[in-house]
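Here is one such protein, fold included:

. . .
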Amino acid sequence: MAQLVKLSDYVSRYEIDVYRYPSRYVRLKKERWERLKQDWEAERKGYEHLPTWNIYENNEESLLQRSWNKLLRKKHTETKEEMSLPSKNQLSVQSIEQLKQAYRDELFQFQMNWASSTVSEISQVKRSYYYDSLLNFLVKQLPDTCFIFYNPVFMLKQAQVDLDVIILTPTEIRMIKPLFGNSRTIFQAETDRFWIRNHNEKKERFIHPYISLNRMRTVLQGLLEEMNVTLPMKHVVLAKDSFIDVSSTNKRVQLIDKRNFQQFRQTLLKNQTPIKNQQLKIADKFLSHSLTISENRVEGNRDRFDENSHITIEKD
């Protein structure tokens, strides 16, 4: 699963230390899956001496859970990270594929938490992001070596610049202009400045997506030049659930719709290059120019912000 490094103008854990959190996430992800799979298999075999879901449902922390958490705290003294026990719903699934889906859903919630809060600060997340099909796809399906900037707001010379989607991989930067619709939606070009969205016999005019891509390229290219760094940059207009009826005359822009989306997905999945130091430096540069709006977390209410995540960070 990919890493949601920056979401909109929300505070992010990665802003604290982008060199530390990516590897921490990879480790937590691995440990979580091993624990979840172990307990699910034990539940399926009916091992009564191992933790079962009816213990987890107890409102008061059980002796078993306290012992487990104590063990984890001892194991991770340096980072003070803690994993709670698997939930009833997770252990009640019938197949390993269902367990993997539950695991991906859990990690998506966890990444949303990291992308909107730290120990001392929190940002108010729009609920629509939790149901955003593209955001869900990118986080759940892409490798964890992919760093995602989703609707970031960059600050350049005291001016705010709203961008769309950036996928920073170890070997390239993909700038994506998403177009949203369903299988009855068709996008067509009208002029050099406008496209048309056709849906249920209704037509809506919107700004040519290439304009947004060019703005993203200008912003990111300028930051890379400041670092004296070069990295291949690719432009994508993405309508993963709809159709694009446009002849591609610009070879620099890739048009992806419902017909070739799976091929595009496979291309992203093929990149198995490990995270590189240059990638971390670029992510740090992007984060340093990103706008963050947040508020202080109330000490007494800190735990409630992590209630939807089964992996909790106690303290940095």
